[in-house]
Design goal:
The complex is a heterodimer.
Chain A: E1 21-27, E2 35-41, H1 45-56, E3 64-69, H2 81-84
Antiparallel strand pairs in A: 1-2, 1-3
Chain B: H1 5-17, H2 30-49, H3 51-55, H4 64-89, H5 95-103, H6 121-141, H7 147-175, H8 179-198, H9 210-215, H10 223-240, E1 251-252, E2 259-260, H11 266-276, H12 280-311
Antiparallel strand pairs in B: 1-2
Classes of the chains: A alpha+beta, B mainly alpha.
The complex binds fe (ii) ion (FE2) (2 copies).
One fe (ii) ion (FE2) binds near residues 47, 77 and 156 of chain B.
Amino acid sequence: MILIFNKGMNTNMEKDTQWPLWEIFIQANPGIPHKHVGSLHAADAEMALQNARDVYTRRNEGISIWVVEARFIKASSPEDAGSFFEPANDKVYRHPTFYKVPDGVKYL
Amino acid sequence: MQKDEKVLLEEFQSKIDKGVKIEPKDWMPLKYRNQLIRMMSQHAHSEIVGMLPEGNWITRAPSLRRKAILLAKVQDEAGHGMYLYSAAETLGIDRTTLLEQLHSGKAKYSSIFNYPTLTWADIGAIGWLVDGAAIMNQTALAKGSYGPYSRAMVRICKEESFHNRQGYEIMCSLAFGSQEQKQMAQDALNRWWWPAIMMLGPSDDNSPNTEELMRWRVKMESNDAIRERFIDRTVPQADYIGLSIPDPELKIDEATGHYKHGPINWEEFFNVIKGNGPCNKSRLKTRVDADRNGKWVREAAEAYAAKRVIRDDTDF
Ligand SMILES: [Fe+2]
Ligand SMILES: [Fe+2]
């Protein structure tokens, strides 16, 4: 996904921008989440949906499409991943395997 | 705290060795980034320019069935170009720049698309040989280290096998048809065989940087290894339809069990790459014209989108 490099994003009519960039999420079947599949360029959301259909679902790969203009996505950064996700590291008691279940006790 | 380059490079290499994909925001050596931009954009351009030789026959396909198939195939190639441009953009280069590089002739695309499609049999030969060779290359690239490229490649590979089969099907109908049809198929094979062999790239002793690119899993296999596999798989397919490969020196090497081909005319290959193939100029002109003629459409769509935002910014 393009998250940091968004040149060509400001709709400046002087320069040929090839239109803004949209990230595409597709739900393949009912009951499962939408999944990121790639990106494309489109002038507006409606066109992004139509282009996404033609680019990413030519073989019935989806039943639903979300399009999000790339510049609106804020992503965490890999360099900070260590400290950013650190709070979860020392909380083993969040997992059921942390607890001892007495022998013979069932349904816990 | 800023880690120094050496540590970053070690971490980068160890991820690759463990088979962990590199993602757009991860640290990567500048050389890796630039090499990938070059490869992915060349690949994207090839998909786009690659529509032209086949597009030439859409209106003259011999039946409605063939026409529908060819249309779908060419549309897939457009899709492949789009997947790859968008994957290349994750490395910080924008679409406008990529297209400018193609249109100015600065960026390269596969040499094979600079050959003309003279008869309908060429459409068969392209699907069978050109897509066939591309599949060999792309299956290897799908295992590459850069996440967005490898994911695009997985998708592309899934779509390619129909391209390959429809081409072989065309060759079958011609080869098992009238004497004239068979001759047409043989003629197409004669013209496309060597360009298809060459499109897999220069021989190993003539491609620099390979070692580092393999270590970074940008390149997965040497050109010669991929070429050998392509030939091994394709020759029996030609035998089956009774066509002969235009290489008098082609024979199975008893020691390895693989086919050995005769000498390749690399001079022709480099000459086509340099821009002197039969169709380089017309291919480029077609792309440049398409871009120029589409400019007002892009501007109109942007103006329309901007107007709608002003009119009602909640409804898009
Ligand atoms: Fe393709
Ligand atoms: Fe293809």
